[in-house]
Specification:
By secondary structure, the chain is an alpha+beta fold. The protein has three domains: about 220 residues, Nucleotidyltransferase, domain 5 (2-Layer Sandwich); about 100 residues, Nucleotidyltransferase, domain 5 (2-Layer Sandwich), CATH 3.30.420.40; about 80 residues, no CATH class. The chain is built from eleven helices and 22 strands. The strands form five sheets. Strands 1, 2, 3, 4, 5, 11, 12, 21 and 22 form a nine-stranded mixed beta sheet that branches. Helix 10 links the parallel strand 19 and strand 20. Helix 4 crosses helix 11 and helix 9 packs across helix 10. The longest helix has 23 residues. The two termini are about 35 Å apart. The structure holds adenosine-5'-triphosphate and magnesium ion (MG). The site of magnesium ion (MG) has 5 residues, from loops. Adenosine-5'-triphosphate binds next to helix 7.
């Protein structure tokens, strides 16, 4: 699938603009970009070696130095006690690494944003003619951390002409509609299988407008990819327990001390394995090769945790149907939906649900499902702003009840959150 799409009809009147969207995920940070010079929406290559994501992983050492991304991943090997993960789930908290160091989660977000904005400025310099800079931040539909994101942006010292927010499922729906079903109208369920959470939302699409159905509050569970990684870790431990005593004790000791590192290793193995057909999964734990049969791995990946995710998704779909009373289309997004066998398993459960309850449900799996949120946030922005961004007069604009934008400068007076929880 091409990573770029030309969008001829998105011209922002009178402005030489560049738009950055950031999808700060529990396990991966993704970004997308659009500029009025190339008029193309692209995944922004923010990772090392032109990788298109950064691991949402942080490290805090004894001298309070913050490291993030691949570098934090490497540091886990030498200093595992400084690792901080799943920061997105605890953004309003003071975090404590296992080495005793403490930090506000928002401060970590500032460091990550600083890096992304530096890359963005670099891009703008290379384009040469940009006079207007826009930022779109996607946020989970069921959390209200807008003020924390704004504070983190402000603390980077970078400034933007506008900052917009979009709820993650709404962004995913914009991308899907734009890329796959431009004429779709009706009720859409977005099921996002992420690294740390599964999120569900019920949306209504009417012509160009996409909004969350107010009566069907977006829901979700923590777990997702991480829980599946943990079930693979348990499988590995079971296998290690069958080894002779000395080797077993050595490896169990290692696993105990390097749990986070191993979970990251397992996550990568799971992704590699999901992309291949018919291969056993091989782990190398501290120099010992451990092979696990494909069938066993597959059973663990589609085991209790996956069944819980699917069952709860079906419950949400059913409750959404009771509200909208219309045929439903579900889109399955997020990296977790790429787990081998997941989509087929999910489809079979949906067929069962539709037969049992007499509901018409259609399942769609968008291509580029990891990047739907980042790309969709840009589509949303371009669609909402194509006529009026050049006026720069809006201080605040509310679009339906789940997305809004604020005019923002990093050096302006203290930020007030414009977020209104009752409006969700
Ligand atoms: N090709 C793949 N095969 C299997 N699993 C994959 C694949 N690619 C990504 N994943 C898994 O998807 C998860 C990450 O998905 P994603 O990037 O959508 O999450 P996120 O946005 O970081 O998390 P969240 O949406 O919960 O905040 C991880 O568990 C990762 O291992
Ligand atoms: Mg996500």
């Amino acid at each position: 699938m091409a990573k770029e799409q030309k969008i001829e009809n998105y011209k922002i009147k009178d402005a030489k603009s560049c738009v950055l969207s950031v999808d700060f995920g529990t396990s991966r940070t993704k970004a997308a970009i659009w500029d009025s010079v190339s008029e193309q929406v692209r995944i922004f290559m923010i990772g090392e070696d032109e990788k298109n994501y950064i691991p949402s992983l942080f490290h805090l050492d004894k001298s309070s130095t913050i490291t993030f991304g691949e570098e934090a991943h490497d540091l886990q090997i030498y200093d595992p006690l400084g690792a901080l993960e799943y920061v997105k789930l605890q953004l309003d908290q003071m975090l404590r690494a296992a080495n005793g160091e403490k930090i506000e989660a928002g401060h970590l977000l500032t460091q990550l944003f600083k890096y992304l904005f530096y890359l963005f400025e670099d891009k703008i310099k290379s384009l040469g003619k940009i006079t207007s800079k826009q930022l779109v931040l996607s946020l989970p539909a069921r959390w209200q951390f807008e003020d924390i994101y704004l504070e983190a942006v402000k603390n980077t010292g970078y400034s933007f002409d506008h900052i917009s927010f979009i709820k993650e499922p709404v962004a995913a729906a914009y991308h899907w509609k734009r890329q796959e079903k431009p004429h779709f109208q009706g009720s859409l369920i977005v099921i996002d299988i992420g690294g740390g959470t599964v999120d569900w939302a019920c949306l209504q699409i009417k012509e160009e407008d996409i909004h969350i159905v107010p009566e069907s509050y977006p829901k979700g569970v923590t777990g997702a990819g991480l829980e599946i990684d943990k079930s693979l870790l348990r499988l590995l431990v079971e296998k290690v327990q069958t080894l002779d005593e000395i080797e077993r004790d050595r490896l169990l000791d290692y696993i105990q001390q390097h749990k986070m590192l191993l979970l990251n290793y397992i996550r990568k193995s799971k992704e590699r394995y999901s992309a291949k057909k018919g291969e056993d999964i091989i782990f190398n734990v501290c120099g010992t090769r451990i092979a696990i049969k494909r069938m066993t791995v597959q059973q663990a990946m589609l085991g209790v945790e996956t069944q819980r995710i699917i069952q709860k998704s079906c419950n949400y779909i059913l409750s959404a149907y009771q509200i909208v009373q219309q045929p439903l289309t579900c889109i399955l997004v997020g990296g977790g939906s790429k787990i081998a066998g997941f989509a087929d398993f999910f489809r079979s459960k949906l067929i069962q649900l539709s037969e049992e309850k007499g509901i018409e449900i259609n399942l769609e799996i968008p291509s580029q499902s990891h990047y739907t949120t980042a790309l969709g946030a840009i589509y949303y922005f371009l669609q909402k702003n194509r006529w009026d961004i050049s006026t720069k007069t809006r201080i605040e604009e509310k679009n339906n009840n789940n997305n809004y934008s604020v005019k923002f400068k990093a050096d302006s007076s203290p930020i007030k959150s414009h977020f209104d929880p009752d409006k969700i």
